[in-house]
Amino acid sequence: MVLEEGLSIEKKLEILSDAAKYDVACTSSGMQREGKAGELGNSVAAGICHSFSADGRCISLLKVLFTNECIFDCKYCINRSSNDVPRASFTPKELCELTIGFYKRNYIEGLFLSSGILHTPDYTMELICQTLRMLREEYHFRGYIHCKAIPGANPLLVEYAGWYADRMSVNLELPTNEGLRQLAPHKSRKSILTPMRQIQAGIAESRQLLGFKGGNYGAFHFTRQAAGLPYRPEPAIPEKRKEGNHAIVGIDSETTSVERTGRELRLSLLESVGRPTGRGFAAAGQSTQMIIGATPETDYQLVSVAEALYQKFELKRVFYSAFVKVNEDAMLPDLPGGPPLLREHRLYQADWLLRYYGFAAGELLTEKRPNFNAVLDPKCDWAVHHMELFPVEVLQADYFLLLRVPGIGPKSAKRIVEARRSGSFSFEALKKMGVVLKRAQYFITCGGKTLGHLHLDETYVTQSLMLNEKLPKNLQDALYGRQMSLFELPAFTAEAG
Amino acid sequence: MEKKYIYRCEDSVEGILTGIYDAWASVHRHEENRIEVCRDEWEVPLLFAEYTDVVPDAEKSEKVQRSVRLRVSEEAYEMMMKAVLSGDPEKGEVIYRFLIYAFREGARAGRSYGNPWVMRLFEIVRNFDNESHHLKGFLRFDEQENGLLLARYAPKNNILGDLMEHFSDRMNGESFMIFDEKRRIAGVYRPGTVWFVYRLNEEEYRAFSEAYTQEDTYSALWKIFHRKIAIAERENASLQRNNLPLRFRPYMTEFRTS
Ligand code: SF4
Fold first, then answer.
1. Would strands B4-9 and B33-37 be described as parallel, antiparallel, or unpaired?
2. Fewest CB atoms within 10 Å of the CB: A50, A124, A144, B8?
């Protein structure tokens, strides 16, 4: 370990922002909070992007590690203990001054604090807590704070951080226990899921005791409905969840549940131990991140895990980060084509389908067809494999069926349902409602009519859809840079994907 | 060719709304009238047209505002006011046509997706709101020697009011000033007072232009951060340009060369 003494703040920032860049989440959304006299800052629910870096990603928060002096040796990580890289740590005061200085100049919405593990998980988590407390109570900072829970840290410390942070996250990193064992030998499913479960309980508690937001009704509701699980409009505080039999990829069986006592008792307890309940507990929700392409898991495994996280942990967001190979290690794959950006893109599209469309992971992919189609987005891919369900009559189909039509999204589906109340309408009107007819035309009738000749043939539709997907330019190049022959089209290959 | 009556108004709330009031009160039919907002560029006068220079009148402007709130809706009023502050060259005409329709249709007018003038107004308002949202993030303050935070920008729409609302809530303990270079107006806030906007004279304008850029420890640190947070393997200038159009960059600390 290269320890450099007496580093300047410039040098520290250089090292500790460079080390934090692989965390993809930089959003400042989910929290609405007005300003207050004598304090600095407020928060806007939609989130605000302050800049964009050279890779085109949004910069909203001061995203840094507290320290990169890490005792763990995760193979994929630039900061792994066996690497010979410059090391640095902030002090809580330095981080506070940086955050305030940046915030006042309108560079950022707030702080995103992550960290390597200095000495022990508890030692690190305590430093994070100190920083957050100082920022809120001494610097009177009212802006956005996203903070990591360190796997393996004392639950009391995690709880403490939750009352100061707007969002918390614990990165799952790899979707299977096997992957973790190989690449992150110091971490385990259990050490990651335990704080996740605890944060979920904290959010539910602040929602019920104090009326704050947090959690994710939409995704929770949709993914449970899609899986045929019972759901309530207001998810209860998870006491001891008895859902072992529904456990997908074994998530439930591996966690320890957090016990909660009665409501009044809890509130008075919180107050007596001096919890600052004024902002709620991580009331902008919880998120996590998985690395894509460092281990051989399939897309099916990835979306199944994401689904389970929405269903059972009420996560606000699951983020996907295309693996960037920063270390030479026999355990790591070679990626001659660079980070798998197209795959990452497809996963985000699928994630969207889970959260807003009521798709179940098992509908999008199966063990037999475990990976997304490179040339079609997941929804179109699903549709061309279910031609027997189409065409759908837009004047009659219910909301959820409309949502399944490529080219119709939640907004346009809602508009269709509303517009139907006052009579029938034409294809022209559908367009005005935001339906993308270029895609939808192969799957719908409107008042019994079709737009042009309806050709319900899988191959034909697949090809037509492929040609009109609008991919970001770099992905377009990645996909079509090479010559594609007709025989590579999914409909021609036995195992599409 | 049919003769047109053109009302030329000053680019201000009073100017535009007075123009609409005068056109309405004139003896001509609506189709014969046109509202034109003065811009700096020289415009080719129409041949078969009679031009009237509108004299801004606070009372007339008030009257228009009041009747929109009462007879159409609060929502329509807000859209109209944003359109007045927008940078759209046709805004005067669009508002006029919208109002003709809205006074006939009442509160429903704000939701008529079928009417082309309503759609144009939506478009103007959306453009206004988008720019305002963007600048809540992209605006940059530089700390002056006396502690004042000073920001400079040149937006397409006059969104200063929106920004002053936002920042006076957010930074209620700081003195700050936002300076619109294009319109030569500045919004001023001091802790414990209410923000206001005023027009700069030539001397002040020059003073502000010079005072603005203050490189300090934080601006240097911000540049380091902005550079380091990018992942080289994912570099994507076109995505960056889509998300952060070039026109904002001259005013942004991280794109400034020192
Ligand atoms: S714990 Fe693992 S991923 Fe986190 S900084 Fe240390 S080595 Fe990197």
1. parallel
2. B8
